[in-house]
User: Fold these one by one.
Assistant:
Number 1:
Amino acid sequence: MVIDLHVHTAFSDGTQTPSELMSEASMEGIDVVGITDHDTTAGWAPAEAAARVYGLGLVRGMEISCRHEGISVHLLSYLHDPYDTGLAEVVEETRRARLDRTHLIIDRLAEDYPIDMDAVLAVSGEDATIGRPHIADALVAADIVESRTEAFASILSSRGKYHVSLPTIDPITAIALIREAGGVSIFAHPRAAMRGLVVPDTAMTEFITAGLDGLEVDHRDNPPAEREVMRRLAHEHELIITGSSDYHGTGKPNRLGEHTTTDHMFSQLLERAGTRHGGVDFIQG
């Protein structure tokens, strides 16, 4: 099977509806898709309906924003209960923090550029988890930059004067909440140094000790040499190894299915989820 467990829709910072995404996945020969929008499960229901139309397997997930000692960490939660109180409350708080941060960034940008919240909402839609990619899209729409990539490399750089950090929970807390909600936790693009600082090996050990289930090893933002380091670490600790595209439609150059997860590792993910009470099921294609 061709299994891509990390894709985004317009319910966060992707550019396609779940139906459009599933249609493209079908045309590209993908068998199983993992919907992992940022800090939201709002896309699960339409993704399920579309998956059944196109005969695709669907893993319902979410990418959770975390921070460890000032370093951004993203955790992929798969097959958790979306109504679990502990995890749902934290995610809702993060969504509110994202919106507050967006207002702060826009206030700073407005001193130098013709941009406001209405411009961001015009490109994001009301149901999306608002974030910096939508600010980038507003900058593109205003002909200030040509692409999201250019926006993040310049105006929206984390090292620039317009940047505002997102207050979020520690990954160790998130790992516990995911498990309590019946889900499986995977550390997304753990060595993506091009995005900013990455956590040191000591932190990685802490996450594993806390119950981290796996590592997203095969991802374009992990340098090849680091992928092998992560693969050895995963084997040493019997962690699940995933590979994914982190596809965002036209929002990023990542291609659907450019990295995938093996059948064996996917079976391990499903088996681990099956041992935990309260999660949701994998939807067969």
Note: The two ends are 11 Å apart (CA to CA).
Number 2:
Amino acid sequence: DIHSLKGGFGAWLEAGYPKIGGAPDLDAAYTAFLGGMVKYNTIGSSALNEQLAEEPPPFLLDVRQTDEVQEKGYIEGTVLIPLRDLMKNLDKLPSFETPIVSYCGSGWRCTIAMTGLGALGWTNVTALKENSYGGWVEAGYPTVTGLPSEAVSLNAATPDPAMVALLDQTFSNIPEGWGAITVDQLASELTENPALILIDVRTEAEIAEKGVIESANRVVIPLEDFVSRKAEWPADKAAKIVSYCGTGHRCTIAMTILWSYGYTDVRSLKGGLGAWVEAGYPVVELAAQ
């Protein structure tokens, strides 16, 4: 009783079925992740509060440091896994299809976490924005003091081991400051280092309306096309790179992707172009290509 697999191994992978061994296919993982994004996988405090009243509620993942949680509290029902330890604790997470809401102090680290989990195959992960846990507290939603109970192993999902190993290397080595650069720091660096490369991941419509940060070295790739156009990424993986978008969310996704491909000096502009303009720094019209 012998059959031949129609389409072969390529068709198996294209259909999303798992494989064992081999080098991790970052291109396929991130293409699926970016293609499946809804509102860039964000959620606000009000929407989260409504979801927590439903049955079942989403799985809450807090990626702050333990001392932050001890000092400021957490949202009831949370599982705490600090960001740099996330890839070592994937057994604590639910199935690939279960809704997960990641949160942190301001919305930065939870975006990194959401991106990594999306690459591993979790299909319904959102990042709590609107200043994340800080915004949740400011809005008056309930919190719990102390630390949440220690997470238990669920073993509900089986991501590709090779991809896990690669992303663990990436997450374990996230730099101090979590890859953020402020608008003042960027303004100084653009003056001091003309070789600095800016990667703008906004849409063409946004760029036409809002302009761009002037730079001698600029790459423009909308986030949706970021991996399919990776041939346009800087060739030197040690190059100094700053990614930016409108608010800081999409460029943090792009930064995380670049880190996982081996780029070693990538930062994301905190607050994006909005913060740049608000601080009084100039923008220019992007010349036609």
Note: The chain has two domains: 8-172, 176-278.
Number 3:
Amino acid sequence: MSWQQTLNTTIHCAGVGLHSGRRVRMTLRPAPVDHGISFIRTDVPADRAVIAARWDLVADTRLCTLLKNEQGTTIGTIEHLMAALRGLGIDNAVVEVDAPELPIMDGSSAPFVFLIECAGIKQQDQPRRLIRVLKEVRVQDGDKIVSLSPAPVSSFRAEIVYENTALIRRQEGFLRLTDGAFKAEVADCRTFGFAHEVEAMRKAGLGLGGSLDNAIVIDGDRVMNPGGLRHADEFIRHKILDAVGDLYLAGGPILGHYQGLRPGHAMNNAILRALFADTTAWRREDAETWDSRAAVA
């Protein structure tokens, strides 16, 4: 039997908000079985502070994945933390934050992986609940295509195309969420953008916390970051990281294969909406067995 997991203890961190530029304090807390992942905004009244990590609460995907509850409270830039929670097999946790967005940290999931590992992982006494994909579901928006199809494990394949820079052109990547693969293969891969986009965002009052310390910035055919890239294909690895985080808004691990051509936050949410709109395309089930080679953690 594969059991639900939570954090062993509470842990805190602080960092800058990517879009606000303000200091953000965040706390990760253990949660009981079947709680799932939830966010609590500590800077708003308690009666409108709780936001469940759910696909149907996604309200904006233009610059990040942003959730909004029935009271209108929002929390944004959640995808890198969600990816770390999924990658390390955390089913239940409470995330407290004193701002409308999570800290961007270094632009990857690695700092969140470190926090979770420092807090420790505690096995709980109820089986993990999976979402098994039963048939292929596909969404398309112009040249962007994302699909989910049946598979015995959780796996991700994606392709991006940026003809305007020789740094990327076309990159493909694959991740099979086996034991330890998330941390080893994609967790340290940072978000990226182009220099002209950064300038436009700042003129619009966005991206005020962005810097070369928390994002890869591309100017023509060069990387502006003094340290360069962490991986030659860091761009596609980060897109897969985003997909892992966005799909964890399903409310549990998805047992199936994700395929994305030019994917992004909007397409990732669209595929979840398409999946759950078709009750014949999925089912919930207990994770009966644990296989470290075919991780459902």
Note: The longest strand covers residues 23-30.
Number 4:
Amino acid sequence: MFLTGKYFNRPASVRNKPTPKDFLSGFLRLIRIQNLVIVAFTQLFVRIFLIGPREEWKRILADPYFYLIVLSTLLIAAAGYIINDYFDIKIDIVNKPKRVIIGRYLKRRMAIGTHQLLNVLGVLCGLVVSYKVALVNIFSVSLLWLYSERYKRQPLIGNVAVSLLTALSLLILSVEYPRHHGLVLIYAVFAFFISLIREIVKDIEDRRGDAAHGCRTLPVVLGVRKTKRVLYVLIVLFTLILLVWSQYLGNRALAISFGLLVLPLAWLLVRLRRAHTRKDFSSVSTICKVIMLIGLLTMILI
């Protein structure tokens, strides 16, 4: 796979050699450090506020196995971001040329080696906790590879795969700490749906580069208008599931929290309907992030 574009066609002798600061900055962007921080805080909130008991937060924070689960999740997620960019260099040059890291700051061989090392370390951290956690980690590693190498280029299955992995980052805690499994499960479903919606929106943003390189994502196969209709259905279904399930669990605070989420979800629907340009869909994607954050904060109220 050869890189194209102005930067990559310049002879090696005239390229600006990356400084250590450039390399570190590029690597942190490659592993999406801000996303990893959010994952870590999400797992912390799940462990304290959903699984609890929250009154024993000091004991929870002193539990080494919890930190090993978090570390294993972050290592495997970082490896997933690396392998995703490894397979998507040509597409990213079209969609996000300024964000390409592999081949610019990090050699391809080093990228694949780092990916493998992070995966091994992640599975080993899970194995120290329990074989069940390690099995979840192995499943996640395998699905991340299949997503990056194959599923991402297929309609819907790639979106479902990455959304399932998002939900698993919450459910993996229930493997070791089964208390209040129902609460963790409903938030995992929340994470799945909002991630699925955002992934499809991102596919609309990137449809030109995807189409140019043979990716058959929903917007490429169905077109933008029909893809938006799929999103309308998902948003309404998502909202109904949250409201009905929260009532079924009989948790008043949960029902109120998810009831309040109807407002930003309605705003998401309105902005999606009005979206036409890449910038519009980028704004819709940002709203999805805000809803994720609001969902995270509602755990404090449960």
Note: The chain has 16 helices and no strands.
